Amino acid sequence: MIFWRSAPDYYFDEENEIAEYEQDTFKLLKSIIDKFKNNVFKSSKIKYNPNEDFEIEESGENIKDWKLPTELTKPTNGIKPIYLGTFIKFLKNKYKKSRRKKKSGN
Hints:
Elements: H1 2-5, H2 8-13, H3 23-37, H4 56-66, H5 84-104
């Protein structure tokens, strides 16, 4: 998830033009690739589908040029993460339901 959310297309398509302040992110992305290649990540605990964040199949040739391990492009199994926006929406709905109950006298 960190790899795909870090906009790898920016770093790998423009490798020679990466600003100094962005070098740490580029190094992190390369480190993630190396760890996948060395089978460091043997299991996943978070459910994630890279195609939901990044159009892997539509980017085709560009991604092939990055020489990514295929495991990095496949969905993982695990628990679906709860994003802050999803949690706030849940709380708002609970609040609205409780207000309606109070108004109706239940």
